[in-house]
C-alpha cells in the first residue's frame, strides 16, 4: 500500500488514461481523434528563441528631425557674426581673435586658416558655400557617421507624415555629405581653403536623421508580443494520428498536448475517488507481486526488515523514474531498474529478483510519462538481465561481469528499437551509452548498499561467507592452536559437507563455512573432547556420567557465547545449535545406566536442539556423525565406509533429526555417495617404505 501511494505521489497523472503518446518514428496501433479543441503550446525556450529571432530582424526606427536645419543655420549665423567682429580688430589682434571666436563655436582654427577667414573676399564665399550645402542636403535626411553601421538592409524612418521604409545604403551620412559638398567648394585648389571647408561643414552639420532607441525598442517589443505561444490549433473531432501510421514530430507533440489537456481538465475536479482509483491501479500490480512472494517465499514476509528492503529497492527505482520523467525528453535508460535486480539476486535469489524487477519495470513503464514510449521493453530486458547475471558470488571481479551483462542488455535494446524504427546511428549509440552508464552506476550502488542490506535483514550473502571462510580469522586460529583435534575434525567435515551440498544443489559454501564454526564451543574445555585428548588420558574417567554429559552438551551454549563475542553471522550460528539437533549423548547415557542404581534422567543426556532447519545444517549433522564413525573403522574399505555412512544416515532419519530439513530421499542417496567418495579418499592406504632407507612401517619403533 505504501508503494502504491508513493507511486501516485511521484506520478500524479493517471496511468489509466486512454491517450497513448507514441514516440517519433513509431507506428500507431490505434487511431487518436481529438475529443475537444485544444492548442499545442510551445515550450518557454521555443517562444523565447522566436521572440529573439523576430526582434533581431526588426527594422530600427529612425526619426527625421526638421529642426536640425534651423539649428545648423542659427549656429552658422552666430559664427559668421563672431568672425566679422574678430576681423574688425586691429591687425595685430585679428588673428588671435579669429582663433578664439572659432574655438568658442567649436571650430579649431590654425593661423593659416584664421588668415584665410580674415579676408572678407574669401570668408563670405566660404560661409555661403557651407550654408548652401546644409540647406540642400539636410532637408533630404542626413545621418551621423556610424549610426547606420549595424543597421539591417531596410530601416524605418518616422516623420511628421508617418513612417516610411528606406534602404539603409540610400541614406546620406556625414562622409557622403562631405564628398558631395565639393561641388560647392569655393576654393578647391587651395589646400588651406579645402581643409577649412571640410572642417566647417562637419562642425555645423546637424543630423536630420537619427536613431530613436525608445521607438526601436517599443517596435521590437510589439513584434515579440505578437509571437503566438502555441504551435497548432487542433479542432474537436480532428484526427491526430491514424492506425498503422508512422508518428511524426507534429503528431507526437499533439498527442502530448492532448494528454496534458485531459490531465488539466481532470485535475480541476480531482477528488478522493480519482486518487483512490489511481492508487488502486498501482496497488493491483504490486499486490500480485506481494501475493506471489507470500505464497512461494513466505520467509520474506515473516521478516519485516526483509519486506521493507524489497519495498525500499522498488522505491529507489520509482524515485529514479520520477526524476527521469521530468527530463525533456525523458531517457528511460537512466532508470535504475538494474539496481533492483542486482541487489535482490545477491541477497535472496534470482527468482524473487526477476519477479520484482519485471514488476517494477511494468509499474514504471505504465505510468503516464512513459506511455507510448519504449520504456517498458527497455526496463524488462535490463531488469531481467540484472537479475539473471548474479549467481554464486565467489570473487569481487564478478561485478565486472554484471556490468558488462547489463550494459550489453541495454545495447541490444537500443539496437532493436533503433533498427526497427530506422533511427540514426548517433541516436542508437547515445541510447546504448546512457544504458551502459546506468549499468555501471546501478551495479556500483548495489554493491555499495549490499553490506547495509545484509545488516538490515540479517541475511548473509556469499561475499560475507567468503570473508568468514578465511582460516586466519582469530576464532579459527584459536581453534587450530587450542583444540587441534577439533580443528582437524572441522576441516574434514567441511570437505564432506561442501561436496554433498554441491551435489544436491544446496549452498556448498555455506555448508563449508558453517562446518568451520559448528564446534567452536569446544574451545571452552577442549581436553574433554576425545579428538583433543592424548592417548590414555581421559578426564571423563574422573567424572560422573551426568557431569560429563553436561560438559559435552554445554559446548553448544559455549559456542553461541563465542559467536556473540566474535559477531559471527546469524546464518552460521544455526550450525552451532543444529548440528547435534536433539540427539542423545548416548555414550554417557549408557554409562549412567550401567551404574549400580541404573537410573538416569534422559533429559540430562539430550542436546538442546533444535533439529536442522535447512539442508546445509542437516548435511553438517550427517557429516559430523559420519566422520566420527569412520575413524573407528579398522580397515576402511569402500564397502565398509559405505555401510557406515548408510547406517548413520538411516539412524538420524529414524531418530527424527531430519524431519524439518528440506531433504528428499534422492538427495539423501546423493549425500551418501559423496560422503563415501570423500571418506575413501581421506582414508586411502599408503605403502610402507623400507626401514633401512629411513621409512616408517607398521611395526615402527624408535631405537
Q: How would you characterize the overall build of this protein?
A:
The chain is built from 28 helices and ten strands. It is elongated, with a radius of gyration of 49 Å. Helix 20 packs across helix 21 and helix 27 (638-654) packs across helix 28. The relative contact order is 0.07. The chain has 703 residues and is mainly alpha-helical. The chain is 60% helix and 5% strand. The longest helix is centred in the middle third of the chain and has 33 residues, at 425-457. The strands form four sheets. A four-stranded mixed sheet has the order 6-5-3-8. Strands 1-10 form a two-stranded antiparallel sheet.
Oligomer: single chain
Number of helices: 28
- Average pLDDT level: 83
- Alpha carbon gap, first and last residue: 83 Å
- Which regions are unreliable across 5 or more consecutive residues at pLDDT < 50? 693-698
Rg over C-alpha atoms, rounded to the nearest angstrom: 49 Å
What structural class do helix, strand and pairing data support?
A: mainly alpha
> What does the overall shape look like?
elongated
Helix percent band:
55-70%
Topology:
Blueprint: H1 2-10, E1 32-33, E2 38-41, H2 44-56, E3 61-64, H3 67-87, H4 91-104, H5 111-118, H6 120-137, E4 142-143, E5 154-159, E6 162-167, E7 172-173, H7 174-180, H8 191-204, E8 209-211, H9 213-225, E9 230-234, E10 239-241, H10 249-267, H11 272-296, H12 298-302, H13 304-325, H14 337-347, H15 350-365, H16 375-389, H17 398-420, H18 425-457, H19 462-468, H20 474-482, H21 484-504, H22 508-517, H23 545-565, H24 570-578, H25 586-593, H26 615-630, H27 638-654, H28 665-682
Helix pairs in contact: 1-11, 1-13, 2-9, 3-4, 3-6, 4-5, 6-8, 11-15, 13-14, 13-15, 14-15, 14-16, 14-18, 15-16, 16-17, 17-18, 20-21, 21-22, 21-26, 21-28, 22-24, 22-26, 23-25, 26-27, 27-28
